[in-house]
Amino acid sequence: MAAAALLALLWPHLGAAQSPPTGLSAVPASGAVTLTWTAPSLDTDETIERYTLYRSTAWIPDVNPGDATAQPVTISDGTATSFEDTGRTNGTTYFYRLTASIREGTDAAEESNFSDIAIATPSIPPAITIDDPDVTLPASVPEGAVDLRASITDDLAVDQATLHVRAGGASAFTTQSLAGSGSSYTATIPASAVSARGLEVFVTATDTAGVAGRTPAAGFHAVPVETDGFSVSQGGGSAQSAYRMISFPLALDATRLSDLLEDDLGALDPQQWRLFGISPNGLFASSGGYEAITDLSREAAPGDAFWLITRTNATITSGAGVSVPTDEPFTIPLQSGWNLIGVPYAFNLPLNRVTVTNSSASLNDVLSFTGDFVPVERPGSLEPLRGYLVRLSDGGTGTLELQPAQPISGSSAGPKRDTAPFDWQIDIAARVQQARDTYNTAAVAPTARAGWDDLDRFEPPPIGAYVSV
Predict the structure, then answer these.
(1) 78 and 49 in contact (C-beta within 8 Å)?
(2) Is the bond leading into 138 cis (omega within 30 degrees of zero)?
(3) Calpha distance 361→454 (Å, rounded)
(4) How would you list the strands of the sheet with 127-130, edge to edge?
């Protein structure tokens, strides 16, 4: 009986230990370690008063925390689930265990047992530079496979170095490992990624402590690619349907219109071929008004477009050039009224990535021409080699900003315009010989307003002998 009574007296003193924090993890950085954990489960009348972090440069045995020789750090916020341990020495390995001091009601707080151990070694992130005499970023490179060399240094050993590559306008990057010795790492970029579309690359590296580095710090390096150029077929004829709007998606080596056209079409002869643009005074009328271009010393810049008609079938070659960089938006200033523009890139550009700046107006009127005007509506795309006739909703000036690059995540960029469905509509088309005016719609929509609104479209200025509804 005495022994049983003694046992009853000792039982409260041997109460069950408080549950420790779980899932302790340690992520190293330069001179610091970030620790995260999951709070222990509590009864309804229990609260966490504080945490105590035990740190050591030697293994911390799973003993009673009161017997530990590790340095304790008090975390006074009992609701915390993370802590940044700063002032650590790069290259030194640190061991961590964590306890929670839990108060039940008005009783004194009791410290839990140790959590599992977490280990981290702070280090300086890898310093990455790209240095190759054959690829001096952002200088251009020729089409075809390209060798890239990266110089990667770190105060620890580099564990992995990765090259990320995609062609201009593509949504996803492909990855390949860089082979290295010392601080020199190399990889061959495949020819499929080095084309007139342009080249986009970035490099990542991770050291043996798990610390990562990247160049550039955000986005990618855009490498213009040299190309022999493009060719576009032009059907012959003298009717309205023979006209085409053309554009070339390059920064051409030979930029004059004479260099672009006369080698394929011969000297300018209005009986054989003609070229039209829009005068500096603008184009407003709905019936003609284009300006014949007779001075072929004029330069063809990226984003320019022209009306062309040839009496006989012809193929126009652009000649050599270099892709337009894709790491920043391309801007096209717009004059009042209608404008002729082209895509400066050798890939389709979603209209959702064309925005208007320097104006409160919207871009509703975008038309191509394939014998008849064809409207381009979101989520459609602008295509290389074609020209487009565009007008802002208020007919005023502004700037088109073309965003060529997909975000790194691959999601689409740019605003989307939701067009309310029509209650009803009537489509009207007219044709006289080869002249056509097909895309005309009279409709009723619940969001329509008196006067011009976002659903309305302007009749484009026709070219040549035409019919109009």
Answers:
(1) yes
(2) yes
(3) 10
(4) 127-130, 146-153, 184-189, 179-181
Nearest to 440 by CA among 394, 374, 356, 364: 374
Residue-level pLDDT at 438: 62
- Phi then psi dihedrals of residue 265, to 5 deg: -110, -5
What is the structure's pLDDT at 426? 75
* Three-state secondary structure of 423-466: CEEEEEEEEECCEEEEEEEEEECCCCCCCCCCCCCCCCCCCCCC
Burial class (CB in 10 A: 0-12, 13-18, 19+), 297: exposed
Among 367, 250, 247, 225, which Cα is nearest to 304's? 247
| Bridge partner list, 287 | none
CB 306 within 8 A of CB 298: no
Closest CA to 383 of 346, 328, 416: 346
Kindly state the tokens that stand for 457: 């479209």
Mean pLDDT of successive 10-residue segments in the chain (469 residues)?
33 54 95 96 92 96 90 94 96 96 90 95 79 46 87 84 93 92 87 92 87 86 92 90 92 94 95 92 70 93 95 94 94 95 96 95 92 89 96 93 80 44 68 59 71 69 64
Locate 465 and state its tokens.
Answer: 């002998």
Which residue shows structure tokens 């007219």? 430
181 backbone dihedrals φ, ψ, rounded to 5°: -145, 125
Task: Single out the residue of 240, 140, 242 nearest to residue 198, CA to CA.
Answer: 140
Burial call 360-391: b when 16+ CB within 10 Å, e when fewer = ebebbbbbbbebbbeebebeeebbbbbbbbbb
Tell me the C-alpha distance between 117 and 56, whole Å.
11
CB atoms within 10 A of CB 48: 21
Whole-model pTM: value is: 0.71
Are 143 and 196 in contact by the 8 Å Cβ rule? The answer is yes
DSSP per position, 266-300: -S--TTTEEEEE--TT-B--SS---EE---TTSB-
Measured CA to CA in angstroms, residue 358 lies from 122, 333, 340, 353, 390 at distances of 48, 9, 18, 16, 16
Q: Which two tokens stand for residue 48?
A: 């966490």
The whole-number pLDDT of residue 288 equals 57
How many contiguous H segments (helices) and E segments (strands) does the chain have?
2, 38
| C-alpha–C-alpha distance, residues 357 and 343, integer Å | 17
